[in-house]
# Entry
Amino acid sequence: MKRIDVDELEPFVRALVAGLDADDEVASEVAASLVEADLAGHGSHGSIRMGTLYREMVEDGDIDPQAAPEVERLGPTTAAVEGNCQYGQVVGRRAVDAGITLAEEGGVGVVGVRNAAHLGRIGEWAERATGAGFCFVAFVNTGGTAPLVAPPGSADRRFSTNPLAFGVPSFGALPHPIVLDIATSQVAHGKVTKRAVEGRPLPTGWIVDETGETVTDSQAYEDGRGALMPLGGLTAGYKGFGLSMMAELFAGIVGDHRVSGQDEARRVNNGAMFVLVDPTLFSTSEANRERVEALAETIHGASSPEAVKTGPVAKGEEAVLPGEPEHETKRTRRAEGIPFHEETLDLLADVARRTGVEASIPASFER
Ligand code: NAD
# Structure
């Protein structure tokens, strides 16, 4: 494991994106998002993606780095964003910004998104909306392009990890917004891929095969064995499954996008519904600040006995609010660098060589 300084990583990732036919603005936006995910502790949706997914998507035409996303105002509080398969990191920005304009004017903004390629870490869009003062909800699907998850009682890969994200500003009560950003499967597929790159096994309870056995070999899953279980796993998977079906439909209907079962031959193609709400229409900022303070106090005041665990990949063992781990991780990683397994650095250096930007490989990547 090596720590890479954010100031070294970001120009490198920018060069990788630019080396794959993107202009400077696209390269900057994609690199900023990927590095932000690395900083937030979601390396599964960070720079590694240039090696595990995006290079191939660009080469196969699943991402079009030259495309211009189109924003169409549909009504006083509604808009549609056609991503035209530009990087999701670019499309996501346009979609949130369209929602901010709507919510500033009308108090509420509902934005449908289609053909967004891969929107990456959805929490970034929640942070962008809360940063402008709005509450935020996102329902995301992959338009039937990434069948990875089984319905409860099955081990067939039928639908995708359909993430949900929610954001609420903290109204000055905390140094960060409250952001829940989760796949509706036991875990995001990116976490499995990342472990396969790193040669690490999976915790039990993420993946099931048709014999009912849990699969812990990350590469075996990548090679086609078993299916991810919906959030809740063997005990309550029907709940994560239900949330996922709603994400399929809300993203499909509001995004005017496909759903699983209407599969298309692309790698990943997100559709989404983003909703932004102006909290000041309903209550004062002072009252909202008191709500967040009370909630934070009661959660932080919960005891955290040694024997009671949060889970194999949850962040920390203390009682915290969603969004708090990402805020703390960003602070630490900005100061101390971002930890990467050497296999990941090798993979990214390889992408740089393939795309003719090897001169941009940071010296710190060397073994
Ligand atoms: P995860 O299991 O790491 O959960 C992350 C969420 O849980 C965060 O909101 C975090 O603040 C909260 N959290 C973590 N530990 C906590 C603790 N101890 N106490 C309280 N809250 C805690 O996430 P995941 O489901 O594996 O998803 C990872 C990423 O994958 C997300 O950023 C998601 O948007 C992304 N994703 C994207 C797609 C796509 O198609 N674009 C698909 C699936 C997932």
About this structure: The longest strand covers residues 108-114. The chain has one domain: 71-329. Residues 71-329 form a domain with the Ribosomal Protein S8; Chain: A, domain 1 fold (CATH 3.30.1370.60).
